[in-house]
Specification:
The protein has two domains: 1-54; 60-114, no CATH class. By secondary structure, the protein is α+β, with helices and mostly antiparallel strands. It is built from one helix and six strands. A hairpin with a 5-residue loop joins β5 (93-100) and β6. Helix content is 40%, strand content 29%. The protein has one helix at residues 5-51, and strands spanning 60-64, 70-75, 81-83, 86-88, 93-100, 106-114.
């Protein structure tokens, strides 16, 4: 099977055009990646500097897991304990940290009890 000269020139021309297109697409991708990396670095450093702006004041902090179950509670007025599904009054106001297991049962307590003034 013989190829005609015109066909070979046509194939070479198309190959050159495709190589040029490939190089320009590679350049576009590299520029896009560079701009994205620059944007990420500048915005992440701004977010970090904003996060260190000052103290955070809250009356209570509750940490939940992915399912929304409370796992940690830090507060100045902690709730009464639940043991075996029953509420057990503390008898005094408590401030501290409560750690819960997966079923939201209080497993560990670090607290300071204060006497209620009468």
């Amino acid at each position: 099977m013989e190829y005609r000269t015109a066909d070979l020139f046509s194939l070479e021309s198309r190959t050159r055009k495709l190589e040029l297109y490939l190089r320009s697409m590679l350049a576009v991708w590299l520029v896009t990646i560079a701009v994205g990396a620059f944007w990420y670095v500048t915005t992440s450093s701004q977010a970090q500097s904003a996060a260190v702006a000052g103290p955070m004041r809250v009356t209570e902090l509750v940490v939940v897991d992915k399912k929304g179950v409370e796992r940690v509670r830090i507060g100045g007025d902690l709730p009464d304990a639940f043991i075996g599904g029953k509420r057990i009054p503390r008898g005094q106001q408590a401030a501290g940290v409560l750690l819960y297991d997966a079923s939201a049962v209080s497993g560990a307590v670090t607290s300071l009890l204060s006497r209620l003034e009468t």
